[in-house]
Amino acid sequence: MDRAEAERIYDLGKEAVISKLIGLSSEVELLKQIIVSLEDRIQKLENMLSKDSHNSSKPPSSDGLKKPKLKTVSLRKKSGKKSGGQKGHKGHTLKQSDNPDHVVPLKVISCPCCADLSNEPVIGYEKRQVFDLPEPELEVTEYQGEIKNCPKCGQLVKASFPEAVNTPVQYGERFRAILVYMQNQHFIPSNRLSQMMNDLYSAPVSEATIYDASKRIFEKLAPFESSVVDALNDSTVLHVDESGVRAVNKLHWLHSASTDSLTFYGVHEKRGNEAMDHFNILPNFKGRLIHDFWKPYLSYDCDHGLCNAHHLRELTFLFEQQKQNWAKKMFDLLMDMNNYVTEQHNQLTPEQKEPWLEKYLKILSEGWQENPLPKKPPKKKKRGRIPKTKSQNLLIRLGNYESWVLAFLHDINVPFTNNLGEQDIRMIKVRLKISGCFRTLVGAERFARIRSYLSSARKQERNILNSITDAIRGKPFMPATS
After folding, report:
1. CA 293/CA 278 separation, integer angstroms
2. 291-330 per-position pLDDT tens digit
3. How far apart are CA 262 and CA 229, in angstroms?
4. Phi, psi of 287 (to 5 degrees)
5. DSSP H helix total and E strand total for the chain
């Protein structure tokens, strides 16, 4: 509004001025609301930009190429020892073989002084050995079944071939095991695996043969999978997690359930209870379930333990980005509490736990003082729950589920984090980056069962290639317990 317009309104009289001022006041209030809304939106966007793998649940791969120099916090307590191998540590190095496969004699013919030594006796040898791979080649075994003519009835009688030898020409069990190993342990795509077999063994194996190898071992591993499900049901502590996986151009979910010695993977189109019930592990589990507070897990009738690595990352975000003092105190307390528990050999007594619990509740109280809930409900009540801040949601979780957050304090056999579950589920992201999505749901299900077997074999320190060969022969190892 310029001066001429203001004078025009003034000349119209008192009511015109009042009306104009009321209109301007309404516009100012509207602009204030817009400013508040924009400030809130800007803050949310800044929070999103400031989140990375060290202060949220985002994976490290999302940090980008220009990763900031972040101060990472390890859950391990410093031992004070120098880095590297410690005194008494058993090292691994090449040692000379007593029975070398090949010996190359090196003769001494003359001396540097030009004397002839060709006829002088040998008084000793200096030995040096080279360990190398032989020229790779496939061995061909021919089975010759006899054919005889029965003199009594005149019938031709043929010898029986071994069960696994069922075509005139085929690849053997060990070769198929290599295909399964490379594709499911190291995620080599089928077309590249075909090239590799041709380069190494002059065997231009087709992609159909590679898929057939996975199909055969998948069928042979059905008893193993059933055994793993039973063993996980009987375990005392179970780690669970889930991650998205694309199959047939649609989002599916890979679910994992694991212990220190066993791993189960299953693919389902759902993420929640429908999928978990389908795999028939959690409905029957009565031990301690370790997870990241994904709500469907809470519906199962068992003891629970929450992943404190998630809490530490959330607390890091609150004290670094939002300057929440209570968050830094809670971060330090959880770390100190974990260090204290790891030093104990017996369950903590109530007297040992009481000081820690008092500190925990005191910090929660300080957190609520910094983040009080609104005393009055909003004037215009919207449908649904009243939204809460990140701090308030975390405070509610830490308070209402204290026994689950501090399960590691109440039972020293309960892990502080769900790192085992997260490590087991992480491999699917590596697989998707290397080989891409699954073209069929059957392919994804085969991969899940085979990977369950390989992961369990690795945890039990079994030779994976030998374990695959045994499975192809119909004799996979069968874990009785977890």
Report:
1. 20
2. 999 999 999 999 999 999 999 999 999 988 888 999 999 9
3. 10
4. -90, -145
5. 17, 7
d(CA 57, CA 189): 29
- 366, 399 contact by CB (below 8 A): no
For 381-432, write each residue's pLDDT tens digit. 566 677 788 899 999 999 999 999 999 999 999 999 999 999 999 999 999 9
The sign of the dihedral angle between the CA atoms of 77, 429, 474, 201 is negative
Cross-strand partners of 92: none
Residues 328/331/332/337 CA torsion (nearest 10 deg): 160
441 contacts: CB under 8 Å, gap ≥ 6: 247, 248, 252, 267
Classify burial at 217, counting beta carbons within 10 Å of its beta carbon; exposed 0-12, middle 13-18, buried 19 or more. Answer: buried
Q: Which of 334, 338, 397 is nearest to 360 (CA)?
A: 334
C-alpha span between 42 and 272 (Å, rounded):
33
Checking DSSP bridges between strand 237-247 and strand 288-291, what pairing results, if any?
Answer: parallel
* Count of all residues that appear for the chain in the document: 482
CB-neighbour burial class of residue 450 (10 A; exposed 0-12, middle 13-18, buried 19+): buried
- DSSP code at position 110: B
- Give the contacts of 229 (CB within 8 A, at least 6 positions apart): 264, 279, 280, 281
Backbone angles phi, psi at 219, to 5 degrees: -70, -35
Scan for tokens 């119209």, then name that residue.
Answer: 12
Span 247-283, pLDDT tens digits: 988 999 999 999 999 999 999 999 999 999 999 999 9
In what order do the strands lie in the sheet containing 237-247? 263-268, 250-258, 237-247, 288-291, 303-306
58 pLDDT above the threshold of 80 = no
Contact indicator for 464, 454 with CB cutoff of 8 Å: yes
Cα separation, 461 vs 476, in Å, equals 15
Backbone angles phi, psi at 267, to 5 degrees: -105, 135
